[in-house]
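Narrative progress, year one. The postdoctoral researcher (J.K.) led the effort to move from monomer predictions toward full complexes, under supervision of the PI. The following entry was the first complex the group processed end to end, covering 324 residues in total.
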Amino acid sequence: MLVGAAPFGVIFGTLAIASGIPVWATLALSALVFAGSSQFVAVSLISAGVALPVLWLTTFVVNLRHALYSATLLPYARHLPARWRWLLAFWLTDETFAVVERQLRHHVGERDGAKYWLGSSLAMYLNWQLWTLVGVLVGQSVPGLASLGLDFAMVATFAAIVAPQLRQRPVLVAALVAGVVALLARSLPYKLGLMLAACAGVLAGLLAERLALQKGSP
Amino acid sequence: MTLYLVLAVAGMVAVTYGIRLSFLVFGHRLSFPAWLERALRYVPAAVLTALIVPMALAPREVIDLSVANAYFPGAVVAGAVALFTEHTLAAILSGFAAYGLWRWLF
């Protein structure tokens, strides 16, 4: 997990600097928001200069899945003091959730669960900060990265993340619809096309899932 | 610009931390709706695809399917390698190689 996050941290840092985002803001995104995909999306939106409500709304949609993690982990955190739950919630990302949920499910009721959770969180967090910093340094030391086609890094990264998910038919439908709508709506102001495409994609995915279920049952 | 960035980051922190706190801290009074759980499964693929398709097919606002557009073949290679190898880093690097090669060729 730690190794897996490294290239994304570096690409994020480099991309943010090459897109003209200042060092402090790049580091602040990693240190305070600490949510990889929304940070990438933010780089693209901020460098396009979108209105703040659009950025915040997009962040909300992209990170809403963390609410599911929060709900799933609640049974393991119920007994913890409130200040622990406030603290652990801050680091709740995809990777932390994956590791911690598996560990706690197999070792229910052990006293050290919270320590394991905190340790994993801190490891993921420091790891992400380190690789972001490396990316920032790369971005700074190689000026003109943008002209080398660094914006392609985002395309390649996201294509590589999405492609394996497309084996599931409803996800494929969701992606196709989102892609077509995004392409058609690309000239809408405030990058609203992204939101529109995301909503259309999610609805299409749900619809495809329902149709597949109906076909499956006579 | 600085104020814009401060507000941008602050708002993102508030939204993201709020989501993460939702159930862990206030969960005793909430329950997670099943339809939302199903909908969330499609969010990453929909958002990421919506981001990259316009970049890959219309890098300069107009749809460009000519050989001058290296984004498209690069994205296809990155996606194909990820699909068949499940190796994200290899996929990104292959995509970059294809993109660079394409730009050098045309």
